[in-house]
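Methods, example record. To illustrate the input and output format used throughout this study, we show the complete record for Allantoicase. The sequence lines were provided to the predictor; the line carrying structure tokens was produced by it.
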Amino acid sequence: MTRQITIEPLTIESFKPYGDVIQLEGNKNVVLANQGTAKRVNYVAKLENLREASGPALQNARPNMCIFSSAPRPTVGGRFEVKLLERHPYSSQVFMPIFQHGVRSTNPDEPCYLVIVAENGADDKPDLNTIRAFAANSTQGINYKANSWHSPMVTIGQRVNFVVLVWENGVALQDCDEAPISPVVIDLSPSFKSLSKL
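The corresponding predicted structure is encoded as:
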């Protein structure tokens, strides 16, 4: 029988086992900057390059800040099916949405992408008993911990551009390890009420 899960709200606390939520609201360490005209949150995410502590067997990696433009994933009947998870064994990975002119949604609180994660199992593969899905909006970025299983980016209903930061060295299994999984169906309602019908 196909596993089915429902979407959870993305919060700083709920996402802690997998990394960080990058957002202004809900952070306790907000300080004023720029003569009081700006709010600043320090150390909003823990950036990791574990190759540095793993010895000379690993090639050096460089921080790669790139722009990632993600087309909307197909949905069927208000549901999305995930069949693959990935992890970056030696690096954290930041995704921060940046919206361009002409996007369909103008409501910053409306979810625009899914964050799908799972814990590592005893067999060093994703433990599907722990798989979870979170709804993220355009004011929320995420930072996956190094070695944290997650789905490739899933945007719903519209293209979303992201600024991404990850350490890479061009060695495939060091940069990204993929694991096909038994299909998991995610019910997009009620989080994506309007988008899931597209």
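Annotations derived from this record:
The two ends are 26 Å apart (CA to CA).
The longest helix spans residues 172-175.
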